[in-house]
Amino acid sequence: MSASRPVKSKYHFFKVSQPSYEFKFDPIKSFLNKSEQMILDQQTDIEKRFKQWVEKYKNYPDVPEAPDQFYDELNSNSIFPYILNQSIFITAYSMYEYELFSLCDYCENIEDIGIVAKDLAGGNYIEKCKKYLTKVIHIDMDNLEEQGMILKKYQSFRNSFVHKDGILKGSHRDILAFISKTDGISFEVETNQLTIESIVFVKDFIDVCTNYLIDLSNEIYSQKKDDPKFFLDWAKTS
To answer: How far is Cα 149 from Cα 152, in angstroms, rounded to an integer?
Structure first.
């Protein structure tokens, strides 16, 4: 092989594309940080005006008391972080699904099979991608099993928020154990209600799925790079 042409496999894309996953999710992290600061600034402003109102009208019994005057603002500002965190988590999860499908599509483009992950019957999007990579592209994903199990728990959270407004019913001992060790999310046993309390949860999820996509890309590249069926044309004759 010529030293001037070190790349010989069409699967080289999976090696060079790995760093791009972090950049793709960075805008979401940036938005979360800015939104959190905006909420804090709003809270500070409301508290300031609340105190000013109390001081200014403390001797005016006919003027509404501060809790009544600022009720709507206080209520909105207390609820908004939960709504924001939930919606951004769902968005980040959708991005993860999209990137996983894109990865499968690139494999199909290389191998020209004529079957894409979405063609497979049964299962959710993530299960279809795993089935496609293992059964159609023939990738051994055993090394990613532990990461995959963690992502399945995040999938349960996503499904709960999307389909059941955050209600998680049934026996979920493994899920509850995971929640107890995970920052930024809580579970109310009496109401079966999941709540994302902090952007830390969303940012940690982004790190988990980013690392998984990078490790999966590396597995695909490692297992396919030496297969002569996918060598570039010049490499086949060198």
So the answer is: 5
CA-CA distance, 136 to 114, in Å (whole number)? 11
The reported pTM is: 0.86
**Are 99 and 23 in contact, with CB atoms under 8 Å apart?**
no
Q: In this structure, are residues 117 and 101 in contact, taking their beta carbons and an 8 Å threshold? A: yes
Whose CA is closest to 173, among 158, 156, 161, 159? 156
C-alpha–C-alpha distance, residues 208 and 211, integer Å = 5
Q: Distance (Å, rounded) from C-alpha 154 to C-alpha 89? A: 10
Q: Angle 226-137-1 (CA atoms, 0-180°, nearest 5)? A: 15
Structure tokens at 194: 């999941």
Strand partners, 187: 194
Contact 199, 33 (CB under 8 A): yes
For residue 135, count CB atoms less than 10 angstroms from its CB and return exposed for 0-12, middle for 13-18, buried for 19 or more. exposed
Rounded-to-5 percentages of helix, strand, coil across the chain: 70, 5, 25
> Which are the contacts of 105, defined by CB distance < 8 A and separation ≥ 6?
116, 117
Q: What is the mean pLDDT of each run of 10 residues along the chain (238 residues)?
A: 63 82 91 90 91 92 90 85 93 96 93 91 90 95 96 94 89 84 93 93 96 95 90 65
Cα angle at 22 between 16 and 25, to 5 degrees?
Answer: 135
Contact criterion met (CB below 8 Å) for 161 and 190: no
